Amino acid sequence: MAIVNCPKCTKRISSQHKVCPHCSLPLGDISDEERKRLEIERWKDKVYRATNFSYLALTSLIVGVLWWWMSGAGAWVMPPPIPAFVLIVMGVIGYLVGRGWLLWLRIGPGRPDHVRKRRF
Length: 120
Ligand SMILES: [Zn+2]
What we know:
About 55% of the residues lie in helices and about 5% in strands. By secondary structure, the chain is mainly alpha-helical. The protein has 2 domains: about 1-30; about 30-115. Helix 1 packs antiparallel against helix 2 (about 80-105). The two termini are about 40 Å apart. The structure holds zinc ion. The site of zinc ion has 8 residues, from loops.
C-alpha cells in the first residue's frame, strides 16, 4: 500500500482506494490524458482565483480612492479618512500580491508543461 495524491483534488490517499474519498473521482482506470486534463483544470482554477483576488484588491483600492475624493473639500490635499486609507493600503498590497501570485502561476514550477506554449 502506498500513499498517492489524488489527481483531481491532490489530497493524499491510499493507492488501494478505488474512488477518491474526498472528491469521489474514480481512480485506477484513469488515463494519462485525463490526468493531464485534471492537472490543467486545477491550474486554471488557481489562475482564476488569483485573478479574482487581484480584481477584488483593485476594487478595494478604487473604493478607497473614491471615498477619499468624496470625503470633503480639497479631497486630495487632506489625508484620507482612516477607512479609506485602510481600503487603499489593502488594495495596493492585495493587488501586488495577486499579480505576483499570477506571475508565479504562469512561470513557476507549478505550471503544467503542456500549457506552457499557450498564450492568454
Ligand atoms: Zn480526490
